[in-house]
Please model this.
Amino acid sequence: MKSYFCLFMIASFLSGCSGQTKVDGRLDAKGVAVALMVLDTARAVKTEADFKLKVRVTNVGGALLPALGKEGDYFRVGASYHWLGTDNRVVVWDGKMTFLSKDLGVGDSQDFLMNIRAPSEEGVYILEIDFLQNSAFWFAGVGSQVARVLVKVNK
Model:
């Protein structure tokens, strides 16, 4: 009996070390908040170009942000973006998603490269970075901060 218990404890410990907790439903929106900082970016890109943006996220809320969700990425936590005109009108609402690679504990930070696609029209845009729980809610909608960067898009 003791050996089975020990094996169970070892397996539980090792799975907890992966840093990827799975969430099967909507997080409590009251417990989520992040601080976002853009670490570098191209200030000018080509229309419809794919590029990377280095971002730091810090969990300033009261809950763990899990790295995994249900099958098909439902309820997974990560970053996405909106493209806005300089008049704040929405040009692109849902951008590509970049998911957390590991859990983000309270007070912890994680740097990651976001996958971004530029708008199809030339112009000067505001790139707004936000966090979300896929298929649930955008963090800005529950009071969390966003990061904004001005980007020129050329043909």
The mean pLDDT is 88. The radius of gyration is 18 Å.
